[in-house]
Every structure is written in C-alpha cells, then in structure tokens.
Amino acid sequence: MEQVPLSHVLILSSILFFLGIYGFFSRRNMITMLMSVELILNSININFVAFNKYLYPHQLEGVFFTLFIITIAAAEVSLAIAIVINLYRRFNTIDIEDTNTMKF
Amino acid sequence: MNYDISSILILVLPLLSFIGLALFGKRLSPCISGIIGTTVLFITAFLAIYTAYEYFFAVGSQAGTYIPHTAIKFTWLQFNENLSIDLGIVLDPISVMMLIVITVVSAMVHLYSIMYMRGEDRFRTYYAYLALFTFSMLGLVVSVNLFQMYMFWELVGVSSFLLIGFYFTKDSAIAAAKKAFIVTRFADLGFLIGILMLSYGAKTLDFATLIERLTQPGSAHLASMTACSFLGLSTLSWALLLVFMGGAGKSAMFPLHIWLPDAMEGPTPVSALIHAATMVVAGVYLVARLFPIFAISAPDVLTIIAYIGAFTAFFAAVIACTQTDIKRVLAYSTISQIAFMMFALGVSGWGEGRNEGFTASMFHLFTHAFFKALLFLGAGAIIHAVHSNEMKDMGGLRKSMPITHITFLLACLAIAGIPPFAGFFSKEAILSSAFHGNPLVFYVALVTSGLTAFYMFRLYFKIFWSKAAESHGHEQEHSHNHEKGMWAMNIPLMILAVGAVFAGLIPFGSFVSADGKAIELPFHLAFSIAPVAVGLLGILIAASLYKTKNDRPEQVIEAFGRAYRWAYHKYYIDEIYLFVTKRVLFNLVGRPAAWFDRNLVDGMINGYAYITTTTSEAIKPIQSGRLQTYSLFFLGGVLLIAVLLFVKFL
Amino acid sequence: MSASAILFYILGALILTFGILTVFTRKIFRAAVYLLLSLIGIAGIYILMDMQFVAALQIVIYVGGIVVLIIFSIFLTHQAGERLPSRLPKHLLWAVSMASVGLGLTIWTLYNYSYTPAGIAPIEHSVKNIGRQLLSYDKFGYVFPFEVVSVLLLAAMIGSIVIAMKKKQETPSNSPNSGEKKILN
After folding, report:
1. CB-based contact (8 Å) between B639 and chain C?
2. What is the DSSP string of chain C?
3. Which ipTM was obtained for this model?
4. Which residue of A has its CA nearest to B629?
5. I need a surface site. Which of A42, A56, B335, B449 has the fewest CB within 10 A?
6. Residues B364-385: pLDDT tens digits?
7. Rounded to two decimals, what is the model's pTM?
8. How many cross-chain Cβ pairs, A to C, lie less than 8 Å apart?
C-alpha cells in the first residue's frame, strides 16, 4: 500500500463524499437520501483511517474516531428510520416533496 | 388688607368658581350653583372697587403721575437670560378701571341670569362658563407680559365660543360659534406674528420693558426696528399693525366684524357681558396698553387705526338703521361704538395737550359698558316677555314693563349723547379730540353720532310706543305687568341705569391718561352744541317715523331704494366672505391640499407599507418547507466561506 | 506497482461505481443492494490498510445492521417494487453545480498541501492495543467518549421506539391507561 500516495486515497474519499452530497440533494425518496448520508459518513471514515495510517502510524486516534462514527451512524439511522415510518403514517408517502407543511 | 392680595383674589375667585362649578356642579342644585356663582362675583366686584379705591385714593399719585404697580410677578418660561414669559398682575389706571368694569358688569349678568336662564337644564354649566370667561378677561387686563395677554386672549376666545354655542342643538348657534372663533383666530395669527416681531426687535416680552425700549429716542432696539422699511412702513409699524389686526378681530373692526352680529345666537346675558362690555373692548385695551409705542414711534399706524375706526363706525351705524332683530341692532351699535373708541385712540397724540383722545377713548369704554349692558339686559327682558326677537312682534310695551321702559330710555338717551347723561361727556370728549386731531374723522364721527341717535330711538319707539299689529290686539285687557316678581332681572337694570346716568360726572381725566399724569378734559359749551343738535335731530326724525304707527317709514324706504336694500343685507359682506372661502379657498387651496395629503403624503406612507409587504411576499417562498432546499443553502454558505478562506490563506 | 496498489485501485473503482449506481438508480431495492456492495468495498480498503478491526466493525455494523435496517424500512413503507420519480432538471442543476464546486475546491486543497509523515515508529493496530487504549483513563484514554456513546445508543434505542410507536385508538375502556400513554407519547 506504500506506493499509493495519500492524495489518491483522499481523492477517492472526496469523490465519494460529493457523490453522497449530490445524492442527498437530488433524491426524492427519504430512504435513498438516508443511503446517501451513509455514503458521506463512510467517506469520512476512509479519510480518518488513511490519515491515521499514512501520517500518524504511532497513534490509534483514527481508529477510535472511525469506531465512534460508525456507532453514531447506527444510532442515527435507527432514529431516522423511526421518523420516516412516522411520516409515512402521517402523509402515506415518503416523498420528501410532500412533507413540506412547515412553511409560510 | 394689602391691595396686592385683593388683586390676586380678584383673579383667583372666579377661577375657583369655574373649577368648582365645572367639577361639582352636577351634585348641586341649579339654584345653589347660581347663588354660588353670583356671590363669588359680587365679592370679586367689591374687591375690585376696594382695589380701585386703594390705587387711586389711598396710594394715589406720586408727583402727579399714577405709577404702574406690579402686584405679583413670577417667571413661567425662561427662553434665555433675556427673554422669558412671566405671569403677573400689574395695576395701573386702565387695568384698574377695566377691573371695575368687568367685575361689576359680570356680577350684574350673574344676578340677571338667575331668573333669565331659569328652567334651562344646563344651568350649572352656564354659570361655570361665565366664571371662566370672567377669569380670562380679568387675566387679560392685568397682564404683565405680552405673551400672558395672548394666552388669556385665546382663553377669552374659547370662553366666548363655549358661550355663543351654548344652545348647541341649534345649527345656527353652532355655526355662529364657529364663525366667531375662526374669525378671531385668524386675526390672532396677525397678533402672534406681531408679538414675535416685537419681541425679536426689543428682545423682551414684558410690557414695561417693551415700552421703555421702543420709545426712548436713542435706544438700539428702536433703531434696529425702524431701520429698514417695507412698502413705506418700518418694521416696527408692521409689527404694530399686525398686533392691531389681532385687536381688530376681537373688536369687530371692518372687515373682521362679521362674527359679532351672528354671535347674538347666544343667550342674551352672554351678549350683554361679552359682546357689549368686555370681550369686544379687548382690542381697544390692547392698543391702549401699547399706546406709548404707537404714539411715539409709529404714529402712521395710529392714522390707519383712526381711518379704519371711523369707517367701521359709519358703516355699522348705517346697517343698524335697517335691521329688524333687536339684538342685531344692538350688535351693530356695539360695532359702531367700539369703532368710536378705536378712532379716538387713533387721533390721539402723545404729550401735553394732545393726548386727549386716549382719555376720551377709555372714558367712552367705561360709560359704554354700562349703558350697552343695560340695553342688552333690557332687550333680554323684552325677549323674555314677548318670546321673540323681531321688532314687529313688539310694540306698546311701556305700560306692561315700566322698569324696563325707564331704564331702556335712560340708556338710549345716554348713547345718543344727550346731556347730562354719561354718553354725552364721553362722546363729546371723543369728538373734541377728533376735531383737534383729524378733521375728516371728526365730520364722519358727527354724522355717525346722529345716526346713532336715530337708530337707537327707532328701536325704542318701535318697542315701547308704536301700537303693535294684531298679535298684541288684546293689549288693553292684558296689560299686566310682565315684570312682576322678576326682581333678579330688575335690580341689575336699575343698578346699571344709575351707572349710565351718573358715570359721566366722574372727572375721568384726573385718573386715566396716556402717560399717567392727570389731564383736564376740556368742556367747551360752544363746541358741544353741534353734537347735541345732531343727536336731537336724530331723535326727532325717529319719533316722527316710529312713535305712532304710520306708513312714513315705508315711504322713506322707497325713497332710498337700492341703498336701503344693500344696507339691509349688511352690504353683502357675509356673502362675499362665503364666496371667497367656498369658491376660491376651498377649490383652489383646499382641494389641492387635500389631494396632496391623501395621495402623496398618505401614498408615500402606504407605499412604504406596500413595499414592505411586497418584499415580504417575495421573500416568503424561501421558507418553502423543503428540506433539500434548506440544505442546499447551507452547503452554499459553507462553500462560500470556504472559497473566501481559501482565497485568503492559500 | 505492487499487488496491493492494483487491488486498491480496483476496489476504489468498484466503490465509486456502486456509489454512483446507488445515487442514480431508479429502483429502491437495487439502491440498497448497491450500497451494500459499496460498503463491502470500503471494508476491503480497510483490510488493505492493515486495519482489520475497523473492517470487521464495518461489516458487522454497517452491512449487517444498517443496510438490513434500511431494507426493513423499505418493506415497511411498501416501496419495494416501485420506480422512483425523478427531479426537475433545474433542481438537479443546482445539486450538480454545488457538488462539483465543492469537489473542485477539495481537490485543489488536497493538491496544495504537503503531507509529511510523523516519522515515529508505528505501532500495531491490534485489538489488544485498541481495546487497552479505548478503556484507559489516562491522558490518551477514550473511556469517557466510550461511555457517552453507550448512553447515546441507549437514548437512540428508546427514542426510536417512542417515535415509531403506534398510538392506541382512544376508546372509553382504555381511558384509565390513556393518560399514562399520553405522558409517554
């Protein structure tokens, strides 16, 4: 893995990040938006791990942060699914365009 | 008692009466409130007489001059170290004389109104208004400061408005009150500008300082005010002319006289108090107060005053000859007599032997108050008995109203200038000063006094002598006394009649004169033949036309033709005013101003509101409730900051 | 080019492809599956970087928990077989431009930065070391965030139960209990 420069890994994670962002903005279904958020979080995980391996191999902080991010992502997804199910009960759809009642 | 305290009490007692009656009058019965009001005014009248006695006799003149005495003075509003509005009471000959006139006439009117206004359900309010008026008029005459006089001037205007419009359910009364207030207020605009100019030039508002600064020949203030001239009159003359405009409004000089005949819509005792004896002389009093400045530094304004006064006197006398409502006749007579006082001031000079006009004017003010109030109160008694204002409903009343008849006759003789009644002395003094001052004015005044005698006796004969029409056909059977039991209306008539008869015998010149020094009013037997003859001529003509019912008046009216019609319609002055205001002012000034206000001013404000709401409506959709839009904006902001930071740091 | 480098590039391409497919596909279920495959690819990258623990975590939690949860929710909301609607081109334009601007910025930053390794001898990323440091309470210990995260998980668990709970219908026979249920709701 030493021949792969750090910048290539970071480019991979950046592209994945902005793919997730594009997916978050362009998808109409709430669940697919959630999937895009997972992509974002995973790209961040790659970043942490790459920095840990390449620049600070004597420390473990990258692992810990990745661990915490995964844990928190799990918690967040469960809550998000609960909310989506609640919204589905109210609006009978999970299209994000139909849940715009909190407006002027 | 120190007469400072008594002079303060003279002002305070009517004010307390007003406040008490206004606030608590509802709880008192009408009878009690009337008695309270009248008693307070009688006490005030006695205090005024006491103060006059103290001032003229006990303290008296020092070295032949009556010195103005300030009873109390305190600073109310200080503008800078030189200019301030003080409030205070000053006693000098004319103010003490006015105190007596106002309080005595007001006390008589209060007593008279107890029976005249009986049965009126706003009786208590009436007495409260009367007390307010008396207080404001008293405050006006004792003013120490020009602005204090202006404040009380306006207060007098307000009281007059309230009293003229007392029967506010009648449209004509409301219109008359509005007209009086608006005309006098318009005149007060000139007064205010005059005050401002005077105070700017002399850097003071205090009367004594004002007179001193603007009459010393070498004072800097006088020099600055007379330095430049505009249309031939210096700044000082313009200021005084504007001040006179205010006085002309209050004193009903042409062309601001239109409010006084209409003001007869108020109750008759009110007309007696306000529009005969006290408020209408406020203008004359103002000129008299500032007389040193007029006479020494701006004599050309005095000439203007003389001509306006003389014209008004003649003009009003002609109209009075044709009117049929007795109160209107008395109103025009008042205008004419006030104009006499005004031109007497106008022809007066300053200094030994030339200031006779001032004393004559004040003398006529004093006597006129008595007999004019007497005439109005008598007219009130007649109206009360006959229940109508028109002369055609009256006639032959001399049997059924003896006291009124005698007192009315005495007053008519006095106003016609027949010796030895009061009016003879004062009118003779005026004519003599006019003769020495301005001969043209003298001849106009002579003719006018003849007309005065004529119309007053026309009034007298038509009311008391000529047999009436069918409305009083049962005259012989029903000649009962209308006056039985009306003591409260008869006593004031009698007291005022005493004044009308004997007031002329007071040696007025030794008390009141322009510079405080006693003068001797000249009395030439040969000179007084002409006025008396003219007066008697007027009486005889009136007797021949009106004493018994005949058709000679109609023939005279036919002979005059169109001139009579013009005089009967008051020379169409009211119509001209109405035309000017309705056609010219409303359409050319009022409507564009209203359009401007509604569309541009309101439009601008509405425009602000419109812009706000439109912007708000345009911005509103930003809060669309769509999550992805919000997060797009969020990301956009983050990227913007990132770009800025990158540009700065990389 | 060693084998691990080639493997890295292949895995990277796979991850990106599956990511693109996740974001662009019109069927939900396929999106979930593509996501799953992408996550597995990421786990592979972790293994290439000698972080086996993290890779294991990734598979267990992400693939085995989260994606399964997502699939459950797809079924619960009756979305399984439908085609997804697409967006207005105007909206898509905004999203594309934002994403590309961001991407450009990030890559430009990446290239302008020089990466200098610390130069200290590496330690082994074994479970023993990870566990020991995770639970130690000295200067570099992470016991406090560890405990906090466990509390967070508890809260998330309770929260999602409460949010997703079906409200009972209001009937007279249920009214003594409904007050209590109201407080819980």
Report:
1. yes
2. --HHHHHHHHHHHHHHHHHHHHHH-SBHHHHHHHHHHHHHHHHHHHHHTT-HHHHHHIIIIIIIIIHHHHHHHHHHTT-TTPBPP---HHHHHHHHHHHHHHHHHHHHHHHH-------SPP----HHHHHHHHT--STT--HHHHHHHHHHHHHHHHHHHHHHPPPPP--GGGHHHHHHHHHH-
3. 0.92
4. A25
5. A56
6. 999 999 989 999 999 988 888 8
7. 0.70
8. 224
